[in-house]
Amino acid sequence: MTCSKAHANQQAVPVIDLGLPEEEAATQIREACTGSGFFYVTNHGVSQSLVDDTFEQQRELFHLPMAEKMAMLQNENNRGYTPFREETLDPVHQAHGDTKEGFYFGREVAADSPESKKPLHGPNQWPDPQLMPRYREVTWQYYEALYGLGLRLLRLLALSLGLPEAYFAPMFDRPMVTLRPLHYSGEVSDPGAGVFGAGAHTDYGMLTILATDDTPGLQIWTGPDSTSGTAPNSSNGAIGAGREGSGAGDDGTAAACGRWWDVEPIPGTFIINLGDMLERWTNGRYRSTLHRVINTTGRERYSIAFFFEPNFEAEVEVLPVCCGPDEPPRYPPTTAGQHLLDKYAATHAGYHGPVKQGHEKQQQQ
């Protein structure tokens, strides 16, 4: 079998119509989750006008003076602004941090709530309403719309695994749901020199719902080590969804048949990808796929990631339907909170919160 045939089933990023009967949609999701680990969704129920309005608000947010953004600098609750190059997603191969800036907005937890003592919980930091009078209202409408979409996808994921549709619901009644607007600079990436829009990484949690503008840049690694390890840092172009990036994998046997593939924007869709927690729950059957962002155009790029993560205390242990005498668990049990704390501490220079579950934050008086 040739290399191209060996990973041909991983190249496609399918488009799944959520208007289909749930059983049919769940079947298509299972195929995508065991294939590339990425898929688009249409008929998702989120109005295009809300998406457009939200993007306009994010552009205005990033164009605020630096002093205004720094006043919202990321805090121990993982809420707030992350400057350019603050995050380094692939420390082994990056010469410096990602050429992007971003914000974190999470589920609102009042500062005087007992829940605020947990790591990664607390109130959001919002821009001055005198400068951005509509920002909070529009962004929160979008947050709630995607939260609803996330619950819908949870049901379909459960059905795709042969589980009751509400199986994951108790693990998401107080979830760590995070909205992350991102602004990539126009700096052209140079993988050989360790310069990336976003270094190669897998997402940390359950699933990610991504909206992008019309600027390409997202790439996924297919073939060997698509869910773990590292991939060659060859220079890539962006030429279309499900197609090989120009120059990708040209190092022959060193790439072991792996390829970087472009996931181009498709208007009216969201891009869905799976995170490490779902891979652990499914014993590796569902793929948390390595991906990165490469700037080949010299244009700025905006995207909005919505990370849909379980409750902080949720136990992440291989599902009984995904293991057995001939297929023992490949991952030790952990909790959602500890998994995220480990990841944030490793990749964010600006995160200075607790790094162990059970360690309460110092409360402000």
UniProtKB/TrEMBL annotation:
Keyword Metal-binding among UniProt keywords: yes
Polar residues: compositionally biased ranges: 225-237
InterPro entries given in the database record: DIOX_N, IPNS-like_FE2OG_OXY, IPNS-like_sf, Iron_ascorbate_oxido_reductase, Oxoglu/Fe-dep_dioxygenase_dom
Domain of life per record: Eukaryota
Ranges of Gly residues composition bias in the record: 239-250
Chain segments carrying region Disordered: 225-251
Occurrences of domain Fe2OG dioxygenase (ranges): 174-310
UniProt xrefs under SUPFAM superfamilies: Clavaminate synthase-like
Transmembrane annotation, as ranges: none
PROSITE patterns cross-referenced by the UniProt entry: FE2OG_OXY
Coiled coil regions, renumbered to chain: none
Keyword set, alphabetical order: Iron, Metal-binding, Oxidoreductase
Family: Belongs to the iron/ascorbate-dependent oxidoreductase family.
Protein name: Fe2OG dioxygenase domain-containing protein
Organism, scientific name: Volvox africanus
